[in-house]
Amino acid sequence: MGARSGTRERMLVAAVELMRERGAGSVTVDAVLARSQTPRGSVYHHFPGGRAELVREALIRAGDTIGVIIEDAAGRGALGALRFFGEFWTAMLRASDFTAGCPVVSVAVGGGPDDDELGPVVAAIFDRWHAGLVATLTAEDIPRERAEPLATLAVAAMEGAVVLCRVHRSTAPLDAILAELEETFTARLARPLVGGHHPGGWSRNL
Q1: CA dihedral 189, 194, 200, 204 (to 10 degrees)
Q2: I want to staple 8 with a disulfide (CB 3.0 to 4.6 A). Which of 1, 46, 193, 194 is the partner?
Q3: Can you give the pLDDT at residue 113?
């Protein structure tokens, strides 16, 4: 049983790595077998649905990994969670020598025709990340109508920064985005409550 679960895990890790490095379209059965060093029979034993099931499971695994990181960082407060998420991406980029990005984004923008059905899965993953950040912000008395766009800004900005970091082979874009996000978060967190509401138009656009 342990060997079987170990084989399945190796295949999922290999699929996620391929997504991060080359995009979702690169996740073929042959590529996964080569990277995971597993026999061909393992594919349909562990993933009866073939490539489609393998890619789906790998995507969910990747989304859960980052989702747990965001949720676990909530106890650090909004700024602490932001910094922790930034540190996570910085470490991932450097460890891969800037060859690997976000596997979820790779499916969102680089999947093949066979991956169209993964759209709802990608949306659910991003929604989970967004909800985790919203919960962290609202826990610090930021109204939901402001927390939601702030969380959207954070996810979108950091995902874009990861792409730029790969292009420039430097964490400078991510460092710059984190500094701007910290300034924005700090400004919102610093606003005192007046009559139960933050002054200054929380409902305004960013």
Answers
A1: 80
A2: 46
A3: 65
Mean pLDDT for all residues in the chain: 87
pLDDT per position as a tens digit, 116-162: 789 999 999 999 999 999 999 999 989 999 999 999 999 999 999 99
Q: Containing domain of residue 136, as a range?
A: 2-190
Question: For residue 64, is it within any domain?
Answer: yes
Q: How many domains does the chain have?
A: 1
Predicted confidence (pLDDT) at residue 170 exceeds the cutoff of 80: yes
Assess whether pLDDT exceeds 70 at residue 177: yes
Amino acid of residue 158: M
Distance CA 78, CA 135 (A): 9
Neighbours of 134 (CB within 10 A): 20
Instruction: Specify if 7 maps to a domain.
Output: yes
Is 85 a domain residue?
yes
